[in-house]
Prior knowledge:
The structure is a single chain. By secondary structure, this protein is an alpha+beta fold. It has 4 helices and 11 strands. Strands 3, 4, 5, 6, 7, 8, 9 and 10 form an 8-stranded antiparallel beta sheet that branches. The protein is globular. Mean pLDDT is 83; it is low at 1-35.
Amino acid sequence: MDTRTRVAVSAALTLGLLTGCGDDGGAPAGPAAGSPAPQATGEPWYDEVAAASPGGTTGGTGSPCPVPVTFPLADGWTAKAIEPPKGELAELVGEALTKRGGSTVRCEVDGRSAGGGFVRIWAADSPTVTPRAALESFAAGAGETVAGQQFRDLRAGGFDATEMTWLATNPLVEEEDESRNWALAVQSAGQTLVFAVNEGLITERTDVLPAYRLAVRGLAKGE
């Protein structure tokens, strides 16, 4: 992929150009199941950042997030399907916006109207890949320089899960600032799912972690 294409990919991801318009405003979710007590204050996990207040739920067949789990949405955040690129954008970047490290994006939970960022949900293309292997491939699949990877096993709602955090540096950004990333993977109904968030140029950990924590701690089996 040449420099022009990489710049287009980065810009499109930042602006969320591919999100659909189907909101899922279900009934407010109950208390987040399986919420673990804070384990690691500060860098890199920031477990002291509390989960957001729930404002709905999504996931399962027929929802904007068609994956075999359900999870709570933070108040003011909405689930949106990810549409394949079309027209000139599709010709320029192809699958670069929907594929990453052996996974395909399924949906996005958008918190921009509530002052947050995004939680994106991906499904591993291979049904046999383990959560840890899916996370390792996902982190390495964005064409960024990855460092400081750490893993931990925990309970996420009704699932055993593996969580990863790492630092990424985008070679296309002149300042080469590092961004902190978090992702959690679970297996359900023959699929390995990855929930991912990151700090960005205009979002901080307190913008993205509360909605992410609410989602992963409230995971339940879907249909």
